Task: structure prediction
Amino acid sequence: MNLLEYRRYGKACGQLYKSILAEKISHGYIFEGDFTTDKLGFAKAFSKGILCKNDRGIGCGKCPTCLQIEAESFPDLHIIRADGYASKGNLSIKDEEVISLQNKMKLKPVVGDRNIVIIQGADGMTVRAQNRFLKSLEEPVSGTVVVLLSENTENLLPTINSRCIKFRLISDAGMTAEDYSFPREIIEMVLNKKYFFDIKTRLDEEIKDKEGALRFLDGIQKTFGIFLREGNSRFSEACLINCIDCVEKARGDIRQNVGYKYVIRNLILSLEEA
Result:
């Protein structure tokens, strides 16, 4: 798959595409998402967008570079996985694996003009391995792009988080009609310009705690993602991307222990403006 085939991930897809075209590719990224998200596929699509000569920014999917990236055989693409990743066992990436990877990162690209490193299950790195790998982010090798794939970035050192551009990927896998019904009800209330007090009352009835607030944010972001993927006559693409950005900011605020009621109410005001 190419990068634009992951448009369901909204902000992440659009910003990465623009950064490639503008030659403003960062040295470090984190793609965060639960087990239902195709983080590795998205990272490989990003790699195609960077390295493909036929369709820069997207990836043609047919040239030797794209085909080798998909098969994980491209010489300038280095992928490591946590032990036990496939079996969901005791996931860990040890110090010696990081040392081996860092040695590869020092080598000049064989085919293209960049080395791309993908670490699947990056939150499985031991603390010692993370501290060692931190040096690669603090003193990046020119032309090297590092992509960390994580289900929970809270397991990564704050210093690693702060040195990477982070994108949260949301999948609609496993969602039921009930999971969508309340977020869609709130979206309809916003679109129909219902009084804020009425919207607040419904939110207070349904959202009872921090976990409930995060579930609501997942549901509303996935709903916007569906609208973005399938089209919705009441929203422009730019508006939907802006709405997804608002939801991601709200999620970040809650994770920083800002009161969930305050965050959700501010989100509604932001959506009304969007």
